[in-house]
Amino acid sequence: MPRTFCLLNHTLTQSQIAELGEKFNSSEIVYPEKNLSELWSQIPPEKSNEEVVESVVSWLKSNATPGDLFIIQGEFGSTFTLVDFALKNGLVPLYATTKRIAKESHSGETVRREYVFEHVCFKKYQYFEML
């Protein structure tokens, strides 16, 4: 049974964990240590992302095996590089899809809009193949 390595800026919800078990047969959720999680959540926009990517790759090489799932979302360039790594090394990279629900309220001349994001499902990252 594959394990799920989770690199997000939050922990998974109970419904997300249930989906991983039912749809992907995942047996365990593995989060990175606190220092790696903090590094991932605060990638400086003005610096190279190599240190972060190398740290995540090291974590995966030390713990994951081919066939394991890898949920990843975050800073675009680092996410792209790590999805490519995962695909080339037998991991199954996933991302969460959501629907956005807008709530709007009015107070005099002020309009306040709030968005709530609701999980829909996980999808696999994959290479595009021309038919």
Question: Please, could you describe this protein's structure?
Answer:
- With 131 residues, the chain is an alpha/beta fold.
- The protein has one domain.
- Helices cover 35% and strands 33% of the residues.
- It contains four helices and five strands; from the N terminus they run E-H-E-H-H-E-H-E-E.
- The protein has helices at 14-24, 34-41, 50-63, 76-88; strands at 3-7, 28-30, 69-72, 92-107, 110-124.
- It has a five-stranded mixed β-sheet with strand order 2-1-3-4-5.
- A hairpin with a 2-residue loop joins strand 4 and strand 5 (110-124).
- Helix 3 (50-63) packs parallel to helix 4 (76-88).
- The longest helix has 14 residues, at 50-63.
- The mean pLDDT is 93.
> Roughly what is the average pLDDT, rounded to an integer?
93
Order of helices and strands: EHEHHEHEE
Low-confidence stretches: none
Radius of gyration, in angstroms, nearest whole number: 17 Å
User: What proportion of the residues is helical, as a percent range?
Assistant: 25-40%
- Count of alpha/pi helices: 4
